[in-house]
C-alpha cells in the first residue's frame, strides 16, 4: 500500500499498519452497513407497522366472535333440521299407512261395486224374463187403452212389468196379480 501524501516514511511501518487496520475496519463497517440496509429493505417488505398489526388483530378477534355466533346459529339450525327430518319420517310412515288403508278401502268399494253390478245384472235379467212372461198381457192392456203409450221408466223397464202393477177390473185381471204376495211384492 502506498503511503499517503504528507506522511513520512520513517516509522511508516506502524503508521501503515494503523492505516491498514483503519481501512479494514472502515471496509468491514461499510459492508455491515450495506447488510443492515438490505435487512431493513427486507423488513420493510416483510413486516407491517404496529398500527396495521393492531388493526388486523382487532379484525381477527371480531371475525372469531362472528364465527362463534355463526357456529351457535348453525348448531341451532342443525337441531331444527334434525327435528324436521324426524317429523318428515313420521309423516311419511303415517302417509304410507293411510295409503295402504285407502287402497284396502278402495279395493273393498270396488268389490262391493262389482257385487252390486252383478246383482243389478241379475235383476235386469229377472225383470226381462218376467216381462217376456207377461208379454201376452201387454197386448191385452194396450188393446184397452190404444191411445195411451206404455210408460217406460228411466231404467228402461216397462211400468206394467213391475211387480206393483195392479189391474182391478177387466177380464184376466186376477191372473195378472198371480205372482204377487201382499200389496205389490213378488213371491220368493
TrEMBL record:
Bilayer-spanning residue ranges: none
A Pfam family matched in the record: SPATA24
Regions annotated as coiled coil: none
Compositional bias segments (type: Basic residues): 175-188
Start and end residues of each stretch annotated as Disordered: 162-188
GO molecular function: DNA binding
Listed GO CC annotations: cytoplasm; nucleus
Highest rank taxon of the organism: Eukaryota
InterPro entries named in the record: SPATA24
Official protein name in the record: Spermatosis associated 24
Amino acid at each position: 500500500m502506498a503511503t499517503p501524501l504528507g506522511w513520512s516514511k520513517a516509522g511508516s511501518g506502524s503508521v501503515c499498519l494503523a492505516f491498514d487496520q483503519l481501512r479494514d475496519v472502515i471496509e468491514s463497517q461499510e459492508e455491515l452497513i450495506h447488510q443492515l440496509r438490505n435487512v431493513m429493505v427486507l423488513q420493510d417488505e416483510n413486516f407491517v407497522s404496529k398500527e396495521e398489526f393492531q388493526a388486523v388483530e382487532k379484525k381477527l378477534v371480531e371475525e372469531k366472535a362472528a364465527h362463534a355466533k355463526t357456529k351457535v346459529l348453525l348448531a341451532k339450525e342443525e337441531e331444527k333440521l334434525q327435528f324436521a327430518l324426524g317429523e318428515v319420517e313420521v309423516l311419511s310412515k303415517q302417509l304410507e299407512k293411510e295409503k295402504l288403508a285407502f287402497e284396502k278401502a278402495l279395493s273393498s268399494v270396488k268389490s262391493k261395486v262389482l257385487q252390486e253390478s252383478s246383482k243389478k245384472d241379475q235383476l235386469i235379467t229377472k225383470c226381462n224374463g218376467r216381462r217376456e212372461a207377461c208379454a201376452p198381457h201387454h197386448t191385452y192392456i194396450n188393446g184397452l187403452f190404444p191411445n195411451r203409450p206404455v210408460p217406460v221408466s228411466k231404467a228402461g223397464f216397462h211400468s206394467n212389468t213391475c211387480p206393483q202393477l195392479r189391474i182391478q177390473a177387466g177380464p184376466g185381471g186376477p191372473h195378472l196379480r198371480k205372482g204377487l204376495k201382499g200389496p205389490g211384492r213378488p213371491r220368493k
